[in-house]
Amino acid sequence: MSGNLMAAVGSGSVVGFMLGLLGGGGSILATPLLLYVVGVTQPHIAIGTGALAVSANAFANFASHATKGHVWWRCAVVFAVLGSIAAIGGSTLGKAMDGSHLLFLFGLLMLVIATLMLRRRTNADTPTRPVDARMCLFTSAVAIVSGMAAGFFGIGGGFLIVPGLMLATGMPMISAVGSSLLAVGAFGLATAANYALSGMVDWMLAAEFIGGGVGGGMVGMFLATRLAGYKNVLSRLFAIVIYAVAAYILYRSVSDFIGR
What was the pLDDT predicted at 162? Predict the structure, then answer.
């Protein structure tokens, strides 16, 4: 196995493992790993390729949740459709932006996500809300914002989708996680398709990354039940890792800008 192949499969395994273990957040590492470990030189190709890998992993995990009855189908489908349209718009804006500037904003986003992970607490289930105009409008707004962010940065967007679904509909967290995965997969697919139209997806690399993600995800899900009591600790440790990666991205982005 060549060094580049090992790096791609290994990086995919890390993302899949964190997704399986923690149920979200791991996809934020896809782009940094593709850039700084695998060696992709163009940020837009890393984002487009990473979006495809995130989509594949999300759909795989979605199938598992769907078979267990954790999906509110009407909410999930409507959310995915609206958000995917927004993801196309977001990814179009992302493609038009200078790569170094996009990475700088990506680093700032990572800081926000890490902070939210550190502050997150176990959420009690809220009463189910009636399907009225207010709920539909709020859900649509969350879908559009999540889709735009997912498309612009090439991320899953689950950190926005899960709390948004819970707040808008009152669905239990496990249902919000399961339902969100359809949206995450759809957002990633829409983003990747838009990038592919501009030749910004490395298909072979994506296949290697996805292959590693499947294996890593299986290990992560196997350990998830055994380490369930330590999930909050693991999430906080992972948030610290995200802080460190964000600091490195910001440092590289600023250095590249100064060196021009």
Answer: 79
Judge contact between 140 and 82, C-beta under 8 A: yes
> Which tokens hold the place of 200?
């910004």
Domain range for 7 is: 3-259
Going by C-alpha positions, the residue among 185, 174, 180, 233 that lies closest to residue 55 is 185
Average pLDDT, rounded, for the chain: 84
* DSSP secondary structure code for residue 126 in this structure: P
Ramachandran class of 23: left when φ > 0, alpha when ψ lies in -120 to 50, beta otherwise:
left
- Pick left, alpha or beta for residue 24 (phi over 0 → left; psi -120 to 50 → alpha; otherwise beta): left
Cβ atoms within 10 A of the Cβ of 231, count?
14
Q: Read off the pTM.
A: 0.84
pLDDT for the residue 203: 94
**Cβ distance 213 to 16 under 8 Å?**
yes
Contact 8, 37 (CB under 8 A): no
Place of tokens 């996809």: 27
Number of domains comprising the chain = 1
Residues of the chain by 3-state class (helix, strand, coil), percent to 5: 85, 0, 15
Q: What is the separation of C-alpha 85 from the centre of its chain, rounded to a whole number of angstroms? A: 17
Largest CA distance in the chain: 56
Tokens of 134: 């207010």
Mean pLDDT of the 101-124 span: 80
